[in-house]
C-alpha cells in the first residue's frame, strides 16, 4: 500500500485508445515509479459504453490509484457514469471526480470538474450531445472543499482556468476557484504540454495521449517532466 501520493503520471485526450493507456500504465509502473495516474477527458472517441469499460478495466487492473474526469466529448453523461460506477465497485483504486472529490493516500484530496465550463450569467447546460456546464455549477459542486482544509489538494479540470499562458481559452471562475482553494497542482485538459503558475498553484496540461504525450508531475516539489510514448 502506498503511504502517500507524490509522483503522478497524467495524460488527457485518451479518446478510447486502450492500447495506449496500457502502455502508459506500464511506463507509470516500470519507468517512473508513479504513485497515481490522472486522466482528463475526452476519455472516449464515440461516447460508447464499451470504450469506457475497456479503459476503466485497464486502469483497474494496473492496481494504481487512478483519478479521472470526462471531457466535453464524453456525452451523453449517463453512459460514462454507469460504466464508471460499475468499474469502481470492482476496482477500489478507481476514482471518478467529476463534480466531486476522492482521497488519495497520505491526506491528498483529488477534486475535479470535467466537460466544458463556461463563464457568464446563464450559459446553456448540456449533458446529452456534449458536456457543457455553467461556471456556477463548478463552484457549487466544489464548495465542500471549504470544509476539507486539512488536505493537500490536487484539481482535475476539463477546462483550463483563465491564464495568459493558455491563450484566450479558459474560465475566469475556475481561475478564482484555484486561487481560493490553492491546490498544489491543477491538471487541465489540452493537446500540448503546458506548465504555468497561477497564484500558489502549478497548472499543468500533460498533453494528449492520442498524440503520445503525457507528463510526470511531483506533487510536493512540483516538478514537471514532459514525456512521449
UniProtKB/TrEMBL annotation:
<dbReference type="InterPro" id="IPR029461">
    <property type="entry name" value="TT1561-like"/>
</dbReference>
<dbReference type="InterPro" id="IPR029052">
    <property type="entry name" value="Metallo-depent_PP-like"/>
</dbReference>
<feature type="domain" description="Metallophosphoesterase TT1561-like">
    <location>
        <begin position="1"/>
        <end position="229"/>
    </location>
</feature>
<dbReference type="Pfam" id="PF14582">
    <property type="entry name" value="Metallophos_3"/>
</dbReference>
<protein>
    <recommendedName>
        <fullName>Metallophosphoesterase TT1561-like domain-containing protein</fullName>
    </recommendedName>
</protein>
